[in-house]
Amino acid sequence: MSPALAGGVLLIDGRWHGLGLGYLAIMMLCVAALGVCVFPRIPGKKVLVPFGGLLFVLAWVMAVALPWQFPVRDLPAPDGPHAVGIVDFELTDTSRQDPFCESNPCGDRRLQIRVWYPAQDNNLSPKPYATRAEIESSLAGLAGTMSLTADIFSHLNLIETHSVVGAPIVEEDNLPVVIFSHGLYSYLWQNTVLMEHLASHGYLVYALHHPYDAAAVRFDDGMEIRAWIPEQNPEQEALKALREKAYSESDLDARFDFFLSYIEKALSINDSKLLRSAPHWQKDQLFVLDSLLASKLPKKVKAIAEKGNYRSVAFAGMSFGGSTAMAACHQSEHCIAQINLDGADSHFGGVNKMAPAPLLHLYQDHHRQLQHKAPDLPVNKALMFNDFSIQAFERETRMPKSFQYIVSGSNHFGFTDSSVLLAGFAATLLSGEPDGERLLELQNDFVAAFLDQQMRNRKNGFPERQEAEWGSFVMKHKAEKVPLWWEGLPDRKKQAWLERLAEIQGKLKKYY
């Protein structure tokens, strides 16, 4: 009865994954009962024995596979010299009404923020990866977007982080600051491994929950906001088709035409994510920075926040958050570095513009994804989906440094904690082929070294050391094809492109 005992322990701990072990125990009893008590009296027992064996095998598969796909294991430990603390707090932007709320008029825009910071050594217990309340709110919301039950994430309450709530902050001033945004329909702590790594190395990292575009946000007063997902319609499908063309065409003339057509289509149908979500994410990020600069903060976070240097910050994010972080960097005089973890352009403010600050861009293996979808599609591996959005087209324009890498074999969610929260088929499906811990180790190394160089002026060998160490995992990407293409265009063609682009950007201004 050890399977029953193991299954019971898992269920008592709150893990639905223990059902497999419980089912195994029941099947063992049933098979034994059928074999001993029933089969001798049934002429067709030779038919029933294999059936009982099949149930037995299926039970074993369930018993082993479910806990294996959703393991309870420690997060990778941060390797910096500091312990890590966290504090959650809320801010309200009274200058702006929430653009998504169903009430009329809408209320002020409320935000939930978590800060990770370098803490003094302590013996306090770390926070679980997700509390029961977070599973019932944010993770239930995430499960809902996938038509699943929140129980799929129940094991995350058993995983310990390395962050202590309210731990005393280190006695240092002018700590470098990162403002981070999650992916669309996700949750603010989706990159806990990276946040802890940076905090252990002396960074203050503020991560935002963007209401209505996060999986779910539950505020201190109990108010909960679930993700608002617009219904798909033929216009949305047409928009998606244009985007896929804009990211896959090998010919740059055709690619740029589809790219501009994609934005024009979004404008014509008033697409909610590109014209409502993206501008407000940018405004959320800038509002948080303004609040930090003015020290307009709740009392519980002031002692931590006063240690930061908000005159020179980095904007960062994953997926939709990475794109809007780049948009915020374009609008802030305080931005000295920007990080995009596999986010496609969703704001278009950087098309044919000089980048405002050095950029680190890590991409999933986009070409591999394209070839999986359409094996016969000719893929130009010299192009990536943001090449029009991170540089001025004229070659002679002086640009801040851009460091772009494709992580071989990776999928989109490999740039989140899912790389280590899942295992087996589930991990490969979401994160890709690389080992999850190695993938996050790579991400930590590139991000921390880039920030140390840009924000602390450290001569740390970035990026040459990383390229040498991770050469089998990463492919360096240079967006040099766009300036070469532009250089070869006749002046009349250039003028036509620029006039079309100017008209689009003029229409976008009213949203930003």
From TrEMBL:
Q: Does the keyword Transmembrane apply?
A: yes
Transmembrane annotation, as ranges = 20-40, 47-68
Which residue positions does the secretion signal occupy? Answer: none
Q: Which Gene Ontology molecular-function terms are recorded?
A: 1-alkyl-2-acetylglycerophosphocholine esterase activity
The processes (GO biological process) annotated in the record are: lipid catabolic process
Keywords from UniProt, A to Z, are: Hydrolase, Lipid degradation, Lipid metabolism, Membrane, Transmembrane, Transmembrane helix
Gene3D superfamilies per record: alpha/beta hydrolase
| Protein name, UniProt field | Putative dienelactone hydrolase
Q: Which organism is it from?
A: Pseudoteredinibacter isoporae
